[in-house]
């Protein structure tokens, strides 16, 4: 038996994972890029090698309905992700305090995260129900609302309400990551700041924030990618309605590729979505990096 | 590298074992929908009888919401373990025939069988003179009304036309019997197209002319949408209808929050069942209405058929299963939620028992069934119409502008 070098062993050990990643993510990605330049059709044979150049992309960008679904998606991403980050960090700060019942509360906060998205969507659909929904009952009983309203049936509120359901489910992820980071901050630093006369905000901005900025930016990127892909919660709650006001880009991609069976065109839509979310993430990271350095 | 080889062998071994099929039963896999018409329980019982009569056969049933049915059928086409039997809607055969998704079963259907089944049912599985399955669910939307509410408002007989319905709804609202007398399934889905088609047929409209050009944006098609919009503006239609599916309509009507509703056959038995409804015993059914000087009744063809995907590996057994499900005795045993496709069943007193009124309505309704367009790009046409109708219902656009825009989109589809 010959002695293998460390590098060789590492490659052998990594090989199974690499094969899986290339097979599950790499191959479909390359295929998607390829399809986006063809007239590929879901069930017609011999269409996947009909080269059409940039036609799919030009059509996609010229499609007013697709552009408005980009608008919907950006709104959804900005609203839900910023609320999730804000709420997540605040909750983590609270859960980092010492108080009675803290362990129980920390466990409870993870619950929404453990819920399957489809179950969460069904649950919120019931809560928002226009006739028997709990939200209407609550708001009318405390006097905030004069009469029951149709939260998901009104184009001006539907997307926001779906985003709120998403926030409820996903802010715990941010809280969890932030809480883990908070626990690494040494007590000495905080006490030193306190002795120097720093107020609560200054302690947060100059001691706590630099320590959590890296983990929070990981959460931010994760949530942005996920929010950009949002599909299942919308499919269950509104199916894109009313009047397409909750139609997001993923919904559009799904419809184009699977309902209308234009795989080539669907692939071009999907790639445009990837490019937009990549650009957004790059901006985020740049901003956070700067913030982390100056804080 | 002995160790490496051993690992590789183990990995390959486990792959081989997990891939090997155990047991000798022939397994059929069938796709159904989990809403309206036959219940899951009905279909399970029908299937158990088939399995008992065909030892060694195991049918795996899958139920999906109607809205997912089309995409499931299309996506399973290239799958290694696709379906052997699928339930499909009347609006899909054009597309499925064009792309060769379903087995052409024309030579399996003899002329005696042809004569015994309702003509409207055949149109469900037929495209261009060829048959792509057996009709199984023959259904249309009926007008349901709450007789007790009408009486309370001093109305002696149900409306005869859509115009009269609006008058009665106004009376019901004015007398405070019910806040929103009408409820519909107008969410952005195929459901709103079914209601729109019913009204379009009543108002004498058409979707496409002889040359397949869209004409729904004028005449009866425009009148139908104006009727819908006006009923919301007048406070007669429950505004939540704009997010309702058929099940929401059933819940609203069954909880006594509406006097009139348009829905499929299945609601008749459920709305009169005290376990499912607080207005059981007050619910009456009639054919959807006509309009003065234009039509006597209206109806949308909402039938569905059973077909065999071309890539099925057990086509003969699949056909046997379809024949079992569509047979007259099986359909007559389960005639509470969905009526048989067989003409003779409608004269069978056993079927009529307890639902005489439904059968009377069915005779008129099924004969008046109006088709949605047979078009390979129907899915896209429907999506454009759904959006237009919702825009008009929400007041974003006038019915005229909304439909004109949809017509422009439809004109550009192949």
TrEMBL record, chain A:
It comes from the Bacteria. Keywords: Cell membrane, Membrane, Sugar transport, Transmembrane, Transmembrane helix, Transport. The keyword Membrane applies. GO terms for cellular component: plasma membrane. The keyword Transmembrane applies. It is a multi-pass membrane protein. The chain crosses the membrane at residues 9-30, 74-95, 107-127, 158-182, 203-222, 266-285. It is found in: Cell membrane. Belongs to the binding-protein-dependent transport system permease family. This is Multiple sugar transport system permease protein.
Automatic annotation (TrEMBL), chain B:
Residues 1-23 form the signal peptide. The keyword Transport applies. Keywords: Signal, Transport. It comes from the Bacteria. Its main location: periplasm. GO terms for cellular component: periplasmic space. The keyword Transport applies. It is found in: Periplasm. InterPro entries: Bact_solute-bd_prot1, SBP. Belongs to the bacterial solute-binding protein 1 family. This is Carbohydrate ABC transporter substrate-binding protein (CUT1 family). It comes from Aestuariispira insulae.
